[in-house]
Amino acid sequence: MMPWRRSRLGIGRRGESMLVDLRDRILAQGTIPKLPDSWLVESALSSAGGSPFAGDFVVATTRADGRRLEVAVVDVSGKGEAAGTRALQLSGAMGGLLGALPPDQFLPAANDYLLQRDWEEGFATAVHLSLDLETGDYQLRTAGHPPPVVRSAGSGRWHVIKTEGPVLGLIEGVSYDPAGGRLTSGDALLLYTDGMVEEPRRDIELGIDEMLGVAEHLFRRSFDGLAERLAAKVGSRDDDRALLLVHRR
Questions:
Q1: Dihedral pair phi/psi, residue 229, rounded to 5°
Q2: Confidence class of residue 227 from pLDDT cuts 50, 70 and 90?
């Protein structure tokens, strides 16, 4: 970071070091817990323009003695340091809520938290996955977020999972309806932010189709490392990007 940038941010070298430390903490929040060998779960994060700060993040934890995975992919409004600072605060709060609340209460609680912050750009989108690691049964809830997609190993086709809910931080007293399903051996699920599929003057459906076409080509080698490889191939370089892959081996 150049000296004039530190001046504009109102921080010195020590403050810059603190922000880098906080950035590392947000990445740690998204660390995937140790899971049974029958599951592969990977995340990838990229920031707009190569900035060290991003408004997209992942939080993850296990519950029920490791039998259930709870994970959320979140996109905070804005870009750069401002969005990154809000993301740092929100990731800590959401990480706590994710491990403490039943799945149906997580997004409403996150919505209440954002409303209480009263930030100037105080909204965010999110997708929340609650996955039973023994049965493969899952519930998905979204808050103003691009739709998750699932690949059936039996048919070899990707399908968009339709689930909708209001953006976090705008409306009081909202609820979020789940979409459910079951992942069987060979199936895969992708959760992602809009930077993966949206570009100016292009329909989001075309962006989703492009992402899935690239994913299908890449996974023929292996699902291992697919999240990073896919995030490197598709999406807008002018927007933050986050991607989560869930694959049942």
A1: -65, -40
A2: very high
Label residues 37-59 b or e (16+ Cβ within 10 Å = b): eebbbbbbbbbbeebebbbbbbb
**Domain annotation for the chain: domains and CATH numbers:** 30-248 (3.60.40.10)
Amino acid at 90: L
| In the block, residue with structure tokens 């705008």 | 170
Of residues 167 and 15, more confidence is placed in 167
Torsion of CA 199, 201, 203, 204, to 10 degrees: 20
The answer to whether 130 touches 189, Cβ cutoff 8 Å, is: no
Residues 120-172 have pLDDT tens digits of 888 999 999 999 999 999 999 999 999 999 999 999 999 999 999 999 999 99
Q: 206: phi > 0 → left, psi -120 to 50 → alpha, else beta; which?
A: alpha
Average pLDDT of 184-198?
A: 96
63-68: long-range pairs with CB below 8 Å, 24+: 63/99, 66/33, 66/35, 66/133, 67/132, 67/133, 67/134, 68/130, 68/131, 68/132, 68/133
Q: What is the dihedral of CA 62, 85, 113, 124, to 10 degrees?
A: -80
Contact between residue 230 and residue 44 where contact means Cβ atoms under 8 Å apart: yes
Q: Where are the alpha helices (DSSP H) in 10-66?
A: 13-29
Q: Does pLDDT of 8 surpass 70?
A: no
Q: What is the pLDDT of residue 229?
A: 95
Question: Measured between alpha carbons, how far is 153 from 61 in angstroms, rounded to an integer?
Answer: 26
User: Each residue of 92-117: pLDDT tens digit?
Assistant: 899 999 999 999 999 999 999 999 99
What is the Cα gyration radius of the chain? 18
